[in-house]
Amino acid sequence: MRAPYGLNILDNCLTCPVREEHIFCNLSVQAGQRLNDIKSTAVYPKGAMLFIEGQQPRGVFVLCAGKAKLSTSSREGKTIITKLSDAGDVLGLNSVISSRPYEVSAEMMEPGQANFIPRESLLQFLKDHGEVALRVAEQLSRNYYTAYEEIRTLGLATSPSEKFAKLLLSWSTKSTQNDGSSPVKLTLTHEEIAEIIGTTRETVSRLFSEFKKKQLLQLKGSTLLIRNRPALEKIVQS
Amino acid sequence: MRAPYGLNILDNCLTCPVREEHIFCNLSVQAGQRLNDIKSTAVYPKGAMLFIEGQQPRGVFVLCAGKAKLSTSSREGKTIITKLSDAGDVLGLNSVISSRPYEVSAEMMEPGQANFIPRESLLQFLKDHGEVALRVAEQLSRNYYTAYEEIRTLGLATSPSEKFAKLLLSWSTKSTQNDGSSPVKLTLTHEEIAEIIGTTRETVSRLFSEFKKKQLLQLKGSTLLIRNRPALEKIVQS
DNA sequence: AATTGCTTGTGATCACCATCACCGGTGCAC
DNA sequence: GTGCACCGGTGATGGTGATCACAAGCAATT
User: Fold this and answer.
1) Residues with Cβ < 8 Å from B208, sequence gap 6 or more?
2) For position A2, what pLDDT does the model report?
């Protein structure tokens, strides 16, 4: 089965490769089947907005393939990226449960696919399946936890270099090889990195220069290599 | 019934005055009764720590009387206050549900009383009462929402004056009288205000001076009066 | 190859706010 | 009373990072 944007469509949750990590999976057979029935699926190009900050929640999106970025903006146009989402993530859950507007916008960073579960259907489903509601609560509390890490870095980590070092470390720990090195494929622009750590494009550019000069990292094409992890950790906790 | 610190002990949730606002109230009779059985209550002096950031969660606290502040600190001692809690609030819920360490510390700002529900009892209770789990999920998503407002102010509002104005407005809207004025009783020190908006004590002091000179606000003893709300709103959105 | 648009590097400048320092006030305990 | 701890006001200073400006690199399209 072929789809737009060169993707293969995943048309059944029960056979989805990211099934294991997914909060709506490993359900009882009938619950899983019912969920599979009420969802619809769609394919999105790069740049597509799944939803926009301030909108009334229509439902949740389950990212099946591709990456998305969640961001919030001020009226003057300043933007911060609060999360990068991968396949398996559930987007918009908080807004649907609390019946408040989406608190962020979700934009596809590459072509991908997402399942959509309408608000009403989900709420009814949760009422019928109390055991799943507790898992939703667990997911929400995890979201809350990461929100607090964001608060800590924004509010406590003072200098841009500290936040930058922190970001680099969080990337590299996710991708550590057995030889200790941890190459990271850079897919973000300096501008986007700046929006993550709450600074400007220019400062990010200068930070890259500075860290390269200090031998903390190395760039091969778009692949980033951490050269001196202890030094980075020292910058973070300083 | 008299208690330490000049408080009257509230010994039964079913007759508690803040019952209505409380997520664990308006339950079915048997659920409410069971919850009343598994909770214990205690009275705390000013400065008491209900729990401390990083601890494994022992359970949730339901604030019955008094105010508490939630804060998180960095190793170097910088602290931010993330929330001020009143009677009726449930503290530590996220950590218990997600089984992660408390992400904040909770300190009593004045003498008060709190009910304690042990972790295991609560989780078992939620498993037995799926309908309450959904309400817990709703509460968690509301928490998440306020966390995002915190993220927005920390990450998007650039200048201290902007955050200060924002804080003043949030206080005054909670206490607007029918004549349009909105006196606020100031119970926080400059230091604490600084920890809320992420700046220093000195800057807060200077902001008070500046805003007074600009006729934006007025101080009568410890009562704060907003004199020019539109101007404050303009500072916020600027 | 040329054009266009987006991204990145880097210099110069400057406002802002954290920091340090010090003093006066107020309440509290002894 | 005296001492102590905390709180609030205010000056001086300096570093830091945002901002502006411009050039150069790179990719896609025609």
Assistant:
1) B190, B217, B219
2) 47
Tokens of B202: 């000195």
Of A138, A155, A172, the position where a domain reaches its end is A155
Which residues in chain A show pLDDT less than 70?
Answer: 1-26, 174-181, 238
For chain B, what is the domain count?
2
Among chain B residues, the shortest Cα distance to A134 is held by B133
Q: What angle do CA B205, B210, B212 make, to 5 degrees?
A: 95
Q: Are A69 and A51 in contact (CB under 8 A)?
A: no
pLDDT at B37: 87
Same domain, B19 and B127: yes
Same-domain status, B104 and B53: yes
Task: Enumerate residues 67 to 126 of chain A having a beta carbon within 8 A of any beta carbon in chain B.
Answer: 72-76, 78, 80, 82, 93-95, 97-98, 100, 103-104, 126
Do B82 and B146 fall into the same domain? yes
Indicate which CATH number applies to the domain containing B198: 1.10.10.10
**Residues A28 and A116 occupy one common structural domain:** yes
Same domain, B125 and B188: no
| A84 shares its domain with A178 | no
Mean pLDDT of chain B: 86
Residue B134 has its nearest CB partner, among A104, A127, A141, at A127
- What is the rounded distance in angstroms from the CA atom of residue B214 to the CA atom of residue B234? 13
Residue pair B98/B46 in contact (Cβ under 8 Å)? The answer is no
Same domain, B191 and B83: no
Contact B156 A82 (CB under 8 A): no
Taking 3-state DSSP, the helix, strand and coil percentages for chain A, each rounded to the nearest 5, stand at: 45, 20, 35
- Test mutation, B81, B154, B196, chain A, max A CBs within 10 A: B154
Domain holding A53, by residue range, is 4-155
Contact A190, A204 (CB under 8 A): yes
State the pTM of this model.
0.86
Q: Specify whether the CB–CB gap between A23 and A135 falls below 8 A.
A: yes
